[in-house]
Amino acid sequence: xxxxxxxxxxxxxxxxxxxxxxxxxxxxxxxxxxxxxxxxxxxxxxxxxxxxxxxxxxxxxxxxxxxxxxxxxxxxxxxxxxxxxxxxxxxxxxxxxxxxxxxxxxxxxxxxxxxxxxxxxxxxxxxxxxxxxxxxxxxxxxxxxxxxxxxx
Length: 152
Hints:
With 152 residues, the chain is an alpha/beta fold. The chain is 32% helix and 16% strand.
């Protein structure tokens, strides 16, 4: 389990955050802000926001004008299968559902496409627990296969 979490966090220096919030009182703002303090770049995905964290917010993952590798999700569990499909379509390699978010259907979509998959875990808590900082790789994934590795 720690291997997959660490692999995701040490591979990607940019995180597309679906459901990112401009409201500092919400976890969907505080968690990405914490990741930024440790070196990750955040690409907010929120159809109702213009900018969050000084970055342009996009309506969907398909609207992000660059390769998306790591997708972190702050949406209700029932909405995550659609996000999983978007992540697959965008060419993502990792899908992470935040603490309290579960979906057997999202898991099946992600795993069938070979994405690394984590659910019901907070990316900031895991980063802190493992003592990690963002990798310095210019936003590009490090080489190596992601297929076959899934967190349960």
